[in-house]
Amino acid sequence: MFPGFDPVAFHVGPLPVRWYALAYMVSFIIALPIARRLNRLAPEVATSEQVDDFLFYAILGVLLGGRLGYVLFYRPLDYLAHPVDIIKTWDGGMSFHGGALGVILALAFFSWKNRLSFLAFADRIVPVVPIGLALGRCANFVNGELWGRPASPDLPWAMVFPTGGPVARHPSELYEALTEGVLLLCVMLFAASRPRLRGHFGFLSGLFLFGYACARSFCEFFREPDANIGFLAGGVTMGQILCIPMALAGIGLMTYAFRRPRQETAHV
């Protein structure tokens, strides 16, 4: 049986603070010093102050992009009929693919504003993104949401979720936390530690896009698709469809990065 977690971590007076919100906050707190350290590696990309300043843009990109992505990718007709519900973020509904687009736009604008190399700066930011993915999926698990497809009752970690009916299911949130989060974080930090890879601007960004697309597509085989969409043609899910352009973009970026000479400076 699913543990009886309370989605509210604690209260500040009358205001509830949910685990999902804490996951976002803790992610940024952990990721910021790591991003600072990555930016100091040769070739130096940005100052620590610029990394700190980007935090605000990153938060806006995640929140606005994640919410609008969910509205457009998963429930466009529902929100078209009830547009006021778009701002009701407390009812849930965030999309990683939308959040990724939001952060990409934030990176592009911030790099242009500060005269930084977009690809070089992005390469030093994306390796820490899996921290947020891991903690976010753990928060999904605590909330008892985004559970998996039916599993064999003999599977030791199969679980009956409160809103998933009486059948045992895969705890797919934890699968995603381990693959999109922990595993991808290890891959990204290892790649970022290699001077040869860092000098090919765009490679780390492409590696992240491709790595996430592979991990998410794999986990979608265990995750129950959204009830309002279900399975698409051929038994694929919306999550897998959205990963196709990410994977292609990742391959394209990595190819582009290695076709260009290794860079010694990261400034425009």
From TrEMBL:
User: What Pfam family is a match for this entry?
Assistant: LGT
Q: In which pathway does it act?
A: Protein modification; lipoprotein biosynthesis (diacylglyceryl transfer)
Q: What does this protein do?
A: Catalyzes the transfer of the diacylglyceryl group from phosphatidylglycerol to the sulfhydryl group of the N-terminal cysteine of a prolipoprotein, the first step in the formation of mature lipoproteins.
Bilayer-spanning residue ranges: 17-34, 54-74, 94-112, 199-218, 238-258
Q: How does it sit in the membrane?
A: Multi-pass membrane protein
Q: What is this protein called?
A: Phosphatidylglycerol--prolipoprotein diacylglyceryl transferase
Localization in the cell: Cell membrane
Listed GO MF terms:
transferase activity
Q: Which gene encodes it?
A: lgt
Which keywords appear in this protein's UniProt record, sorted alphabetically? Cell membrane, Membrane, Transferase, Transmembrane, Transmembrane helix
User: Which annotated residues bind a 1,2-diacyl-sn-glycero-3-phospho-(1'-sn-glycerol)?
Assistant: 137
Enzyme class of the recorded protein, top EC level: transferase
